[in-house]
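Hi P.,

Sorry for the delay on this. The queue was packed all week, but I finally got your sequence through. Input first:
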Amino acid sequence: MRKQKGFSLIELLIVVAIILIIAAIAIPNLLRARIAANESSAVSSVRTVNTAQITYNSTYSTVGYAATMGALGGSSCSPPSSTGACLIDTQLAGGSKSGYSFQIANTSGSPVTAYNVLASPLQPNQTGVRYFCSFADAVVRVNPTASISTCDYSQTPLNNN
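Then the structure:
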């Protein structure tokens, strides 16, 4: 009798089962890590918009704060203007970045003296689970359960610890 070389069907099935068990453990952790990264990026983007608003307000004091994300962005920056200040990147100025949508809302006054920056996950529970906002005081606030249409002092300030 000649001895055949190779793996038996049982051995191959055991290897496949082990790979599936490892994948079942790893995939949820990968998704949670992606959500955490998207949320961190959203907080950073809200802070960037706040900084850009302060710069915009001091540069274009007759206009006040920018009323749109597009006014903070811009594609032609020579020279910058109040309609395209080139203070934030074009992706963020377009209103969407890293699984979150961004908007400036509740602008009021002439010149504009108040604004809200709102950040919402594009696909809740997939790209992010928390909603973020900020207004002219530049404190990032979070609501872990519901969409934010306006930012006020009732939202919890983000704990940076």
